């Protein structure tokens, strides 16, 4: 593994400590505490998975897969189930697409999410990562409802060395996106990265606002590939899954940025999101620095969860 990947894997292992203590310690006691595989054994596994925020639907699918493999392979000893369980969790996290198409062509990335999830910070970090890949990036400060969002994004733009287009607090977000599109075209930007509001408590307004933004992008910038990412706070567990479902009802969501995975016992929510929604988690955050936002690799995540130093395939170029 390259040094950067190895460094991130260590941070991921460290960041998932509470989740690991919550889930894996329980598994180990079950695997060593049972002498045979019976209904009680599966019930205890089920309880730990659900308590680890992996979710009821994903848990049912994981255990169904495990039961099938145990029967097919005639396994009698519980300890022999551990690797099968790990593989079953990885299988549940497989999604149709984890493409990063916006890296390969002229693109607009819309980033949505409720206040407090780390949305503006994630936009800033993503801008820095894309700039480091040699891309010309323009930020649009289209979250005009939160007064501090524009200032915060301006600081990130300055740190990342990218241009920013903003508007007055309370301005129409669609008008900021319109101005930003004009700037992106004039300056031949590779990526226009838009920080937008996400007020789920008023879904009708949010839907209308996003529709206006989508209409402007279709009309003014049809040649650009459009990516919509939702930022979710990993510490909120099942609430994050509920938010992802609601956002996918009002927008064509291509991927998830899952933040604040360091220091939470609810990291299992990454499994639930990919399993239940079939929307890829594309980035995860395990700290404050730009390097702590990294491309998500499901296998590396599960390996880190179980503290197995496996090979990563897609964590970061």
Low-confidence stretches: 311-317
Strand order of the largest sheet: 3-2-4-1-5-6-7-8
Helix content: 40-55%
Task: Note the gap between the termini.
Answer: 11 Å
Question: For the residues shown, what is the average pLDDT?
Answer: 87
Name the shape in a single word: elongated
Describe what this molecule looks like in 3D.
- The protein is of the alpha/beta class and 317 residues long.
- It is 51% helix and 14% strand.
- Strands 3-2-4-1-5-6-7-8 form an eight-stranded mixed sheet, sandwiched between helices.
- α8 runs parallel beside α9.
Structure keywords:
single chain, 317 residues, alpha/beta, 8-stranded mixed β-sheet, 12 helices, elongated, disordered C terminus
Brief rundown of the structure:
This protein has 317 residues and is of the alpha/beta class. It contains twelve helices and eight strands.
List the helices and strands and how they pair.
Blueprint: H1 3-15, H2 17-33, H3 39-51, H4 56-72, H5 81-92, E1 107-112, H6 119-132, E2 137-142, H7 147-160, E3 163-165, H8 173-186, E4 191-196, H9 203-220, E5 225-233, H10 238-250, E6 255-259, H11 269-277, E7 281-285, E8 293-295, H12 298-305
Parallel strand pairs: 1-4, 1-5, 2-3, 2-4, 5-6, 6-7
Antiparallel strand pairs: 7-8
């Amino acid at each position: 593994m390259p040094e950067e990947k190895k460094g991130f894997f260590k941070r991921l292992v460290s960041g998932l400590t509470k989740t690991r203590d919550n889930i894996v310690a329980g598994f180990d006691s079950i695997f060593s505490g049972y002498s045979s595989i019976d209904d009680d054994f599966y019930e205890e596994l089920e309880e730990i998975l659900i308590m680890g925020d992996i979710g009821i639907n994903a848990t049912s699918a994981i255990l169904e897969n495990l039961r099938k493999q145990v029967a097919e392979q005639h396994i009698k000893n519980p300890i022999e189930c551990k690797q099968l369980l790990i593989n079953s969790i990885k299988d549940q996290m497989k999604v149709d697409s984890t493409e990063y198409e916006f890296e390969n062509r002229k693109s607009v990335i819309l980033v949505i999410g409720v206040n407090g999830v780390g949305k503006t910070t994630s936009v800033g970090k993503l801008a820095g990562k894309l700039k480091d890949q040699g891309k010309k990036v323009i930020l649009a400060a289209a979250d005009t409802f939160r007064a501090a969002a524009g200032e915060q994004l301006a600081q990130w733009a300055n740190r990342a060395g990218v241009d920013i287009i903003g508007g007055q607090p309370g301005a129409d977000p669609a008008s900021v996106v319109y101005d930003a599109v004009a700037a992106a075209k004039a300056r031949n930007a590779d990526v226009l990265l838009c920080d937008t509001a996400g007020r789920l408590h008023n879904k009708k307004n949010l839907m209308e606002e996003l529709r206006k933004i989508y209409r402007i992008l279709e009309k003014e910038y049809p040649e650009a590939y459009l990516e919509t990412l939702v930022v979710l706070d990993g510490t909120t567990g099942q609430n994050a899954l509920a938010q992802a479902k609601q956002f996918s009802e009002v927008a064509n969501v291509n991927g998830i940025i899952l933040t604040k995975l360091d220091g939470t016992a609810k990291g299992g929510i990454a499994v639930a999101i990919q399993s239940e929604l079939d929307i890829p988690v594309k980035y995860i955050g395990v700290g404050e620095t730009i390097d702590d936002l990294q491309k998500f690799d499901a296998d590396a995540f599960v390996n880190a969860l179980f503290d197995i130093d496996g090979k990563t395939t897609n964590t970061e170029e």
